[in-house]
Each structure stands twice: as structure tokens, then as C-alpha cells.
Amino acid sequence: MREYDIAFSMGFGCGCSQALRAARLQYASYPMDWIGSPGVVQSAAMIAADFRDWLVRDEMELVDVRRGTGTINRAYANRRTGFVFGHDFHHDSDIGETYGAVVAKYDRRIARLLESLRQARRALAMFVEHPVRKRVPDEDVLRAHQILADKFSGVAIDLLYVYHTDGPAVPVETEIAPGVITLGDAIRQLEYGLVSHTFDREGLIRYLVTHVRVPDMRTEEEKRRFAMAAEGKRNRRFGTGGALAYWWTKQQYRLHRKLEKKLREKGLLPIDRPFWF
């Protein structure tokens, strides 16, 4: 069991942070939790640059309008860096109307991550590769780790790079260098449109639970506020009907995506962008 003071996501998307949270390893929100990353090296370089200029208004391009669970989002990509913001801008407002609030939110998360890393003795950075992307060479993983190690020289920082494999259901761990681990896991992709996506993380969560530990240092008051905020978010998205309402919302969401896919195949939707994520 490897113990860390902090574990955080480097992308590529939502599933990495979701796995860390499900394994009770991440207790706060960080900047790369819900954004799309073009790659592990790019994520490491952006962290090392203190996220400078990663959300520049003039560099943001609308790449998709997609239906989320209970809302419709506009997904924007930074043309220069390739990072994607798919959960921050809603369909009924221009980017300029909410841009300031989004920047302020990420500024808080950036400051929280950087300060937590400066105070940590040991830290775990995790990157989960997109299931349809090929595993990057070990040299790239090592390069990403070196970028982080150089930036946070006073921290023993490990990097866990997870990629899809068609092999056994049990994740295959390989330590390619001290503190640098690649993990082959059978990730089942569930696709709901051009940008929206998720994937099966059960094997990864089991691995994290049995191999990694991050003590929860929050006070009881902080835990209570976090639980109340999470419950409020669930109620806003799914109503107060509990598990049944959540299940029914997911079914409607999936049916909508199936219909959207058929309409795109028949050329009946006006916007047809390539799968870039």
C-alpha cells in the first residue's frame, strides 16, 4: 500500500477524478478534474507552467453543443493548447457572460492544487488515457514525470499512467522507473456523442483501493459542508427522487444519444464535427 498526502487527476477527462473520488483518495476539486487533456505530457507541462494562459478568451473555440445529465453544455477547446472545457458553459448564454466566473472558479482550484503540492511530502498524479487512443511510449510517461519532479523538487511525486488493454480483466502494473507506473486496464468505453463520454472504471477503482491510500485530513465541519453541497448538486440534477430518479434520468439521456447518433448518420443534424477529443 502506497500512502500519499494528495492524489490528483491530470485528465484526460472526467473519469480519472471520478475514479479517485470513488476510491476515497481525492477530497477536493482540482483544475483538471472535469476538463479534457490532449495528453499526459501536455498536462504535466501545463501544471509546471502554473496553468498560465490555459483559459484565454480569444483562444477558445466552440467545438460542440451537447446534452449533459439535466443540462445542455457548450464545449469549448483552447485552439493553442488543446485543453477542452466541456462542463463550464451552458447553451443559453454566450461565453462572455460566464467567462469571468469560470476563470475565477479555476483560479481557486489552481491555487488549491499548487499550494497542496508545495505542502505535500508525497503526491500521486494520475492520468487515464482515452480508451480509443493508443498508449503513449514509456518515454513520454517518463518525460511527464520529470516535468512534475522538476517543478516540485521538494515533493516525492509519483505518476500513474492508465491505458486501455484488451488483456485480462485484472489491471497489469508495470513500474517503468522509480515512482512511475503504467497500468493496463480493460476500460469499456460508453460514448454519448461527439464530445460527451464516460467509461467503465470498476477495475481501476479496485486497484486504487487496494494499492493507494490518502488520509482524509478534513475536519468534521468540512466533511459536512462537502456532503451538503454534493447532495444539493444531486438534487438539482436529478430531483429528490433518489436512486430511481437518477436511473430514469440516465435512461432518458442514453435514449437521447442514440437518437442523436441516428440523426447524424442520416445527415439530419446541421452540425457534424469530427471526433477530436
Q: For the report, how would you describe the main beta sheet? A: 5 strands, mixed
Number of domains: 1
| Low-confidence segments | 192-196, 271-277
Number of strands: 13
**Secondary structure category:** alpha/beta
Helical residues, percent? 25-40%
Beta-strand content bin = 15-25%
Number of helices: 7
Which geometry do the CA atoms define? globular
Major sheet strand order: 2-7-8-10-9
Explain the overall architecture:
This protein starts with a strand and ends in a 12-residue tail after the last helix. The protein has 277 residues and is α/β, with parallel strands linked by helices. The strands form four sheets. It has a five-stranded mixed β-sheet, with helices on both faces. Mean pLDDT is 82; it is low at 192-196 and 271-277. Helix 2 (40-48) runs parallel beside helix 4 (138-151). It is built from seven helices and 13 strands. The longest helix is centred in the middle third of the chain and has 25 residues, at 95-119. Strand 4 and strand 5 form a beta hairpin. The protein is globular, with a radius of gyration of 19 Å. The protein has one domain (2-226, 242-265). 39% of the residues lie in helices and 24% in strands.
Entry keywords:
globular, disordered C terminus, alpha/beta, single chain, 277 residues, 7 helices, five-stranded mixed sheet
Quick synopsis:
The chain has 277 residues and is α/β, with parallel strands linked by helices. Helices cover 39% and strands 24% of the residues.
